[in-house]
Amino acid sequence: ELKVEQNPLFLSMQEGKNYTIYCNYSTTSDRLYWYRQDPGKSLESLFVLLSNGAVKQEGRLMASLDTKARLSTLHITAAVHDLSATYFCAVDGGASGTYKYIFGTGTRLKVLA
Amino acid sequence: DGGITQSPKYLFRKEGQNVTLSCEQNLNHDAMYWYRQDPGQGLRLIYYSQIVNDFQKGDIAEGYSVSREKKESFPLTVTSAQKNPTAFYLCASSTRMYNEQFFGPGTRLTVL
Fold first, then answer.
1. What's the pLDDT band for B1 if we cut at 50, 70, 90?
2. Which chain A residues are Cβ-neighbours of B98 within 8 angstroms?
3. Cβ–Cβ gap A99/B103 under 8 Å
4. Exposed end of chain A (fewer CB within 10 Å): N or C?
């Protein structure tokens, strides 16, 4: 059974600091997705990682994928309050032809001024 | 503008009632999905459909039903058999090529 684990589950950090969120998954998959969710809102797509070694950057966020280690990271650089949200990773079950996502547990990030 | 719409935004259900949540997309996506999110929790897959007139159960399909008669539409019915339906319901759609799922704004269902 495919499992996706994120850590940490909760993260409180000071503005200006750097930190990394980790997403581990338990089976082979070449596609991984990162989403952001603000309180009471829907999910917003952040990054689509489609191959081993893929790296994407947008503003203060950078995501990478290592399919051999079954690991993706979401790195936050010089955090600002506006980044406070819950971040989810999701792995594609497309290798089995189902196109289902398996979502991680989520990481709730709070950036303190 | 292309996107996914869900209605209503808020829905109140009395016990024993069936209610239907609407999901429409104009992105020409083949696949559509329904998720449930409980407060402070992640997303759980209810049903998904990869093509018109075909759909599969997800992880928590009991007490729910769907139909996929048109490519653009994937309504979800929460039946009276679903004993604890209060949750945030999210609909998504995706293309097959990259399978990036795009989410609608959600429907918040409360049982009175």
1. low
2. 31, 48, 50
3. no
4. N
